[in-house]
Amino acid sequence: MIPSPIRVVIAEDDALVSEMVQRQLERLGYAIVGEAYDGYTAIAVVTETRPDVVILDIEMPGLNGLEVAEELHVSCPTPVVILTAYETQELVNQATAAGVGAYLLKPPQPRDLDRAITIAMARFADIMQLRAMNAELQRLNADLESSNADLEAYAHVVAHDLKDPLSAILGFAEVVQEEHTQLPAEKLTEYLGIIVTKSRKAVSIINGLLLLAEVQHLQHDIKSLQMQQIVKEALERLAWQIAEREAEITYPEEWPEVRGHPQLVEEVWANYISNALKYGGTRPRIALGYDADVITREGNRYYRFWVQDSGPGVPTQLHEILFEPFVRADSGHMRSNGHGLGLNIVRRIVEKLGGAVGVESQAGSGSRFWFTLPTTET
């Protein structure tokens, strides 16, 4: 199989020099895919044609060769050879800083031109490899920082959040053990009820920690979701809480098609609905829904789903921290016995699935907690 010729763009404001370089390259087997006579046009031509290498004159109208090289290094990384009528150490330093792979004195000789292109492409490959390695290192550092923060947060939960229910369980269990023969039946029932309630809270905290750890390392299977069924299952999980609070819940009969992980998206709905039940006041009125308009972000399309409650609302100063780990919504407007993991789990799940989360609320006007998921459209 015959290899494809190396594709070159020439940016040179001197037509005679440009024609000479073009003839030399064509004799050497290179393919000229574009020409430019000023800096701005050079950037446009390179961006459009995506050549294997670009040859830039050091002095051009608009932007000079080094300025073009700097811009391409950021917006359209491409191996660069600079043509110059003079050579100084300052020029060499500037060219290196701009990401230039090689430079040639005018008029270039065919052998020197061929060698400069080879050097520029080799240096460019090294730069791209180094850039990829740096990006991977940054990602690993970010993951490490996140893991360290999670470990610190887990330790906080074990040391503080679990201490309250476990201390209560131990205290009332000791009373029952030591005084069960003297305790009135109603007191015994009361203490056992407290033990059961606190045990459930401890189990809930532990389950939250396990889910949070699972989400962090999850290799999830993204698929098209049956949102109607997912919402139904989330409501069935919370049936006893809904009945206990005498809540009124409304939701659409049909839902848009999005992609995600069924079990994890069910966790998101269950968490939002559970919070709406806690904060919705007496006989809360809760609406589940979605925005009909598709959101476009960075070339991707999303639907936004939400849970609207009729409670006192979330003060504006809490909006930014509600989704952080181990933050309780506890103010003059909102009080909960939650353990502070729920909304952080929601954020981690949704971000893993490519979406985002947020809240819209003002004190005294209810809250709308939302999340986005990518559509099934490609």
Keywords:
alpha/beta; 378 residues; Heat Shock Protein 90; Rossmann fold
Secondary structure layout plus pairing:
Elements: E1 7-11, H1 15-27, E2 31-36, H2 39-49, E3 53-57, H3 65-75, E4 80-84, H4 89-97, E5 102-105, H5 110-161, H6 163-179, H7 185-216, E6 223-224, H8 227-237, H9 239-245, E7 248-250, E8 259-260, H10 262-279, E9 285-290, E10 295-297, E11 300-308, H11 342-352, E12 357-361, E13 367-374
Parallel strand pairs: 1-2, 1-3, 3-4, 4-5, 7-9
Antiparallel strand pairs: 6-8, 9-11, 10-11, 11-13, 12-13
Helix pairs in contact: 2-3, 6-7, 7-11, 8-10, 10-11
Structure in words:
- This protein has 378 residues and is α/β, with parallel strands linked by helices.
- It folds into three domains: 7-131, Response regulator (Rossmann fold, 3-Layer(aba) Sandwich), CATH 3.40.50; 162-217, no CATH class; 219-378, 2-Layer Sandwich (Heat Shock Protein 90), CATH 3.30.565.10.
- Helices cover 51% and strands 17% of the residues.
- The chain contains eleven helices and 13 strands.
- Strands 7, 9, 10, 11, 12 and 13 form a six-stranded mixed sheet that branches.
- Helix 1 links the parallel strand 1 and strand 2.
- Helix 2 packs parallel to helix 3 (65-75), helix 7 runs parallel beside helix 11 (342-352) and helix 8 (227-237) packs across helix 10.
- The protein is elongated and about 105 Å long.
- The protein starts with 6 loop residues before the first strand and ends with a strand.
